[in-house]
Amino acid sequence: MRVFAQTPPQRPLRPNGEMARNFLDLSFRLETGEDLPVLTRFEGPVSVAMTGAVPPTAGADLGRLLTRLRSEADIDIFRTDGPAAITVEFLPRRVMQAQVPQAACFVEPGVSSWQEYRTLARSPETDWARLTRRDRVAVFIPNDTAPQEIRDCLHEEIAQALGPLNDLYELPDSVFNDDNFHTVLTGF
User: Fold this and answer.
1) Non-local CB neighbours of 168 within 8 Å, separated by 6+ positions
2) In contact, 173 and 84? CB cutoff 8 Å
3) What percentage of residues in the chain have a pLDDT greater than 90?
């Protein structure tokens, strides 16, 4: 599979005030429109593990993403094989969409596995609006999809696991946009 050369991200070309409004909308509101009372984050280094039927290209894609997060955003993030702050679980699309039909992939707080998600779905433990700190989240990605879609999911869902949870249609220069103008992290 072709891998494109890494180019430095282009800096946003919008006024700072507009970017600040966008950041607040991304950080203090869910895609459902529900307001979030506090800004949450991981405290300290962030570990990432992959579980399930991991596709052959996912490890290298995750490695490149973590390198970018360390070098461009100065995030102390690393891959581990043990328990992790962020667990990326790969599972068959039919299994995932039986529970969440509209999702290509998604991130969920308070869980580290698909089984745990199924047990705790719609409970206070998995309610973003009740979090005061991020301790563990799971990213769920279909393992039977194209490598490019897996890469897209890794970028967007790990970015949301670390930071803003929302997507805004008015952000053409960001992965935090459901129109998928960008499939990898940008300068925004």
Assistant:
1) 22, 25, 26, 174, 176, 177
2) no
3) 50
CA-CA distance, 124 to 122, in Å (whole number)? 7
Dist. CA 109–CA 153, nearest whole Å: 16
Residue 5: pLDDT over 50? no
Tell me which residue of 59, 20, 47, 18 sits closest to 162, measured CA to CA.
Answer: 47
Domain spans of the chain, in order of start: 40-162
Whole-number Å distance between alpha carbons of 11 and 175: 14
In the predicted structure, residue 173 carries a pLDDT above the cut 70 = no
3-state SS, residue 169 = coil
Homologous superfamily assigned to 40-162: Collagenase (Catalytic Domain) (3.40.390.10)
Task: Check residue 183 and report its DSSP letter.
Answer: S
CB 84 within 8 A of CB 51: no
- Are residues 155 and 66 in contact, defined by beta-carbon separation less than 8 angstroms? no
